[in-house]
Amino acid sequence: MGLRGILFQAERLHISLVGLGDHDGLPGGLVEIACRIGTMIEAKPFDVSFDWLSAFGGGALVLRGSDGAPSLQAFWRNLAAVIADSPLKPFVTNSIEPHVTLLRDEVRVPRVRERIVEPIGWTVRDFVLIHSLIRQGLYKELGRWQLNGHDDSLAAM
User: Fold this and answer.
1) Overall pTM > 0.85
2) 3-class secondary structure per residue, 7-30
3) Which CATH number applies to 10-142?
4) What is the largest CA-CA distance in the chain?
5) For 101-141, what is each residue's pLDDT tens digit?
6) Nearest-5° Cα angle at 110, 109 to 114
């Protein structure tokens, strides 16, 4: 596709759902609130599949689900609703359309190169709070929660 960026290593791949902003350092209070919310989420594992290769934000090549990934969309909407009703709400800079970033490149990724690819799917069994060290290519896991709920809803606050 003419891109010069380096593909992300497998251990860095994740589905992005919510951004909590760029900060100088890591605000401890923010992490504490996010971790508290993480413990409140109750959902059962669900299947997800991505089959649409596209540009995102100009310089990223990402995978999305051509069918909208309905189970993931439901989890994402419910997570956003819990966050909107919490002290974390002012820190949310964006609620990101669920996607998996494969590569970042300084060259803008043209939209005309979007295409269907062989589906890549798995069962989502947990979700993670990640601290992305901007421009360092590093991710630090700050919290991990298993999906083991008895129904498709999230626990109320």
Assistant:
1) no
2) ECCHHHCCEEEEECCCCCCCCHHH
3) 3.90.1140.10
4) 47
5) 888 776 666 655 678 899 999 999 999 998 877 666 677 88
6) 100
